[in-house]
Design a protein that fits this description.
Number of strands: 7
CATH superfamily: Flavodoxin domain
CATH architecture: 3-Layer(aba) Sandwich
Order of helices and strands: EHEHEEHEHEEHH
Helix content: 40-55%
CATH topology: Rossmann fold
Radius of gyration: 15 Å
Strand content: 15-25%
CATH class: Alpha Beta
Largest sheet: 7 strands, mixed
Structural class: alpha/beta
Shape: globular
Length: 161
């Protein structure tokens, strides 16, 4: 159980770019599995040593596909992930706090250990057109995602998690 499992959902590309930046940096430190929320299964969670969840905020909560992942996987692993480290990244058009709170409550039910406050990247998308368009996140804006991935990879490699 030394791998970092990164699970993400992305409708317009922002969350995917965040997850990929974290995964690329974490791979320099150790074993990383990057999965979409649709493809992730309970067995993937059981095999991981730590988790990084990445999702967009939709209507002040987690995206439906990310929530569906948690709905599908929650009970099959309940009581089996206690104490494992996790962090989260939210791609939001405004503040992202609603999605972050929702994800934190789910993680609390699994008794995961939060290793840092949510990383929220705000795209400032406020119109229907801006919200629905494909996102491009500049490399400088993705650097905190890379730093988080790297830190989680180092933490696993050092046995901190």
């Amino acid at each position: 159980m030394s791998n970092l499992l990164i699970i993400y959902h992305s409708r317009t590309g922002g969350s995917q770019q965040m997850a990929e930046a974290a995964a690329q940096a974490a791979r320099a430190e150790g074993d990383v599995v990057l999965l979409t929320a649709q493809d992730a299964e309970p067995a993937d969670l059981l095999q991981a040593g730590a988790y990084l969840f990445c999702a967009p905020e939709n209507l002040a909560s987690l995206s439906g596909q990310m929530k569906e992942f948690f709905d599908r996987c929650y009970y099959p692993v309940l009581g089996q992930l206690n104490g494992r480290a996790y962090a989260q990244m939210i791609c939001a058009g405004s503040d992202g706090s609603g999605a972050a709170r929702q994800l934190a409550r789910i993680a609390q039910g699994w008794r995961l250990r939060e290793i840092q406050p949510p990383l929220i990247l705000c795209t400032q998308a406020q119109t229907p057109e801006a919200i629905l368009t494909e996102k491009f996140i500049a490399p400088a804006e993705l650097e905190p995602c890379s730093e988080l991935g790297r830190a989680m990879g180092v933490g696993l490699a050092m046995g901190m998690f």
